[in-house]
């Protein structure tokens, strides 16, 4: 079971939009039921990241992240989704 942290500025709005897209990517690639996603504020990522397999954020990477980081801005802009999706799928294999 992979633990994924999705973060945005407030932990609600854009992280929810990204979460829906990430869940679709994972489910479409056979990972349904093999992950757990939690959302948080970007300010919480450094302390929370120690308990997660990787972080996806719709903002800039903060200092002190303790696990792999995926830039999730593409889930808002629509630009570069394939690259982020490939990164996420590679992290799911580890």
UniProtKB/TrEMBL annotation:
GO biological process: phosphoenolpyruvate-dependent sugar phosphotransferase system
Keywords: Transferase
Database matches in SUPFAM superfamilies: PTS system IIB component-like
GO molecular function: protein-N(PI)-phosphohistidine-sugar phosphotransferase activity
Domain PTS EIIB type-2: 2-94
Keyword Transferase: yes
Name used for this protein in its record: PTS galactitol transporter subunit IIB
Protein source organism: Thermoanaerobacterium thermosaccharolyticum
Lineage: Bacteria, Bacillati, Bacillota, Clostridia, Thermoanaerobacterales
């Amino acid at each position: 079971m992979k633990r994924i942290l999705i973060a945005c500025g407030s932990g609600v709005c854009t992280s929810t939009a990204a979460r829906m897209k990430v869940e679709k990517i994972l489910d479409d690639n056979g990972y349904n039921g093999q992950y757990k996603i939690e959302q948080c504020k970007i300010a919480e990522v450094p302390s929370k990241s120690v308990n997660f397999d990787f972080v996806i954020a719709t903002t800039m990477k903060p200092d002190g992240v303790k696990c792999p980081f995926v830039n999730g801005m593409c889930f808002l802009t629509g630009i570069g989704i394939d690259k982020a999706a490939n990164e996420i799928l590679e992290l799911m294999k580890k």
